[in-house]
Design brief:
By secondary structure, this protein is α/β, with parallel strands linked by helices. The protein has 13 helices and 14 strands. It has 2 domains: 229 residues, Rossmann fold (3-Layer(aba) Sandwich); 95 residues, CofD-like domain (Helicase, Ruva Protein, domain 3, Orthogonal Bundle), CATH 1.10.8.
């Protein structure tokens, strides 16, 4: 059984690879909900939706989000009515938001609503929101504090970033099943997601980082950084705002208290050698996922690397003071 912490487009691509190389029933996904927002009065969970669409075969590969072949007639009509249209929600996408919003209004938790949607779409993997409590990623910029979707989608991440915080995290609880999935998994994989705004909100939920310290399986993270730049998106800007270098060393630093293995791109071989001197296990492979075959190959390689390290080591508990 594999537990994956994921969010963003890089995370969705990695999950797409995993579903090609192992049974979906053996995958549990703990998904970022810090990007969640109310849009036209509907509850939208962008990362949960992307993972759900990947595993149901519905994801638009051209866009990397939303439903393939979707239409945008409602978006056009809302614009004609003077409503905001910067968040491009497709018509089939809206159906999921409508169902989720109704379920939540009826008193279901986000976990329960997610399970119901997954069941209707034929998803076999277990998708867990990181929390049923509202945790919101907030980005501090010179124009004021923005939600992540305002910063990322509406303003195209052009604003300088002073800091990032996760509003509500300190009072949140991990969703049912999350802690157990992490602790009991044969391996925990951290997808090549933005360490600050895709994985950071998950780690900010009380109990989750502690669960990673006590995980019985190896913990491997795939770097979303190649060289000194993110593969896509604003990860470099956001890492700098949080005091992390935009490099594989910065990724390692973000996860340093629980990480066993860092998987980076072959182009970072020299930086990997430097990191190994600190005691961290670093493995290099091809991490750029341009095709379906690329995704499957990366997933297969990461699983193989974790398995090889399990064979060579005796399991041992981690503590918050452990350093890679």
């Amino acid at each position: 059984m594999i537990c994956v912490l994921t969010g963003g487009t890089g995370g969705a691509k990695f999950v797409d690879g995993l579903r090609q190389v192992m049974p979906a029933e053996e995958i549990t996904l703990v998904v970022n909900t810090g990007d969640d927002l109310l849009w036209w009065g509907l509850y939208v969970s962008p990362d949960i939706d992307s993972i759900t669409y990947v595993l149901s075969g519905m994801l638009s590969r051209e866009r990397g989000w939303g439903v393939k072949g979707d239409t945008f007639l409602c978006l056009q009509a809302m614009g004609q009515l003077g409503e905001p249209t910067w968040f491009h929600t497709g018509d089939r996408d809206l159906a999921v938001h409508l169902l989720r919003s109704r379920l939540l209004a009826e008193g279901k938790t986000l976990s329960e609503a997610t399970s119901i949607v997954c069941g209707k779409l034929g998803v076999k993997a277990c998708i867990l929101p990181m929390s049923n409590s509202r945790v919101e990623t907030r980005v501090d910029t010179p124009v004021g504090e923005l939600s992540f979707e305002e910063y990322f989608v509406q303003r195209w991440y052009q604003d300088p970033v002073n800091a990032v915080r996760f509003a509500g995290a300190s009072d949140a609880e991990a969703a049912p099943g999350v802690i157990d999935a992490i602790v009991s998994a044969d391996a925990v994989l951290i997808a090549p997601s933005n360490p600050v705004t895709s994985i950071g909100p998950i780690l900010a939920v009380p109990g989750i980082r502690e669960a990673l310290h006590g995980a019985r399986g190896k913990i491997a993270a795939v770097s979303p950084i190649v060289g000194s730049a993110p593969v896509a998106g604003p990860a470099g800007i956001l890492m700098a705002a949080q005091g992390l270098p935009c490099s594989i060393a910065g990724v390692a630093q973000a996860y340093e208290d629980f990480l066993d293995i860092l998987v980076c791109d072959t182009r970072d071989a020299r930086a990997a050698d430097a990191l190994r001197k600190s005691g961290l296990r670093v493995q290099c492979t091809q991490t750029i996922m341009r095709s379906s075959d690329d995704k499957a190959a990366l997933a297969r390689n990461v699983l193989s690397l974790v398995a090889a390290n399990v064979v060579s080591d005796q399991p041992q508990a981690r503590t918050a003071s452990d350093q890679p």
